[in-house]
Amino acid sequence: MSDHANHGDELDRAEAALPDTDETEATIESYETEDGVVFYDAQNPLAWLKAGEPLTLEEQA
Questions:
Q1: Is it the case that residue 13 has pLDDT exceeding 80?
Q2: Does 22 fall in a domain?
């Protein structure tokens, strides 16, 4: 983390590090709530999906 203020309209952004698809497999897990089902990446539980209508996971991948 930097203690330097951004100048103008500059934003601090981290580059996303995507895993190599050859080395990893999707680890999608789910659980039910009162409002529906939550799908999430088991290796990154903060990566979850919310929709106001039914969607297939293939539409979102």
A1: no
A2: no
